[in-house]
Amino acid sequence: MIKYIAFLRAINVGGHVVKMDYLKQLFVKMDFENVETFIASGNVIFSSKSKNIKFIKDKIEKNLQANLGYNTAAFIRTVNELKSISEYKQFSLSELTVKENFLYIAFLNNEPVKELKDKILSLSNSVDEFHFNEKELYWLCRKKISESEFSGKILEKILQADITIRNSTTVRKIAAML
Q1: What CATH number is attached to the domain comprising 167?
Q2: How far apart are CA 57 and CA 141, in angstroms?
Q3: How many domains are contained in the chain?
Q4: Which site among 24, 58, 64, 123 is 20 to 30 Å from 97 CA-CA?
């Protein structure tokens, strides 16, 4: 059995309310094992015999669409991938320890092409700074995210791909659990 983490888009945002017990039941019905949820934002830890991440992703998305009635993108990572993501040092410690600064991690299913990465990176300014590492976009926001000129929807439009965003604290807590 391989342990995975699914970061789900559109769970408990935008009027899509899903109880974590129900989400856990849906994953169990999909024949995943050792299913746990972490906070109510669509983070699911589970085990599977399958090594085929595309198969797992497609299975989750198809089943959630059927049961929830709307599209929910799934971003699947292994325990080792999540550990690397949580430990990746993209910004200086002095930037990350400023109380008003927040680090977010946007999960993508594929690494963006260079021209789209460059477009995002060119948007960095005194408030928002971006950095890519493989399939993750690290976003240092030097004020509340609600005060930034960027949002998940804007970043998705530029990247021409679905993303889901988590606070780095959430990512580190999940990695520590595993």
Answers
A1: 3.30.70
A2: 29
A3: 2
A4: 123
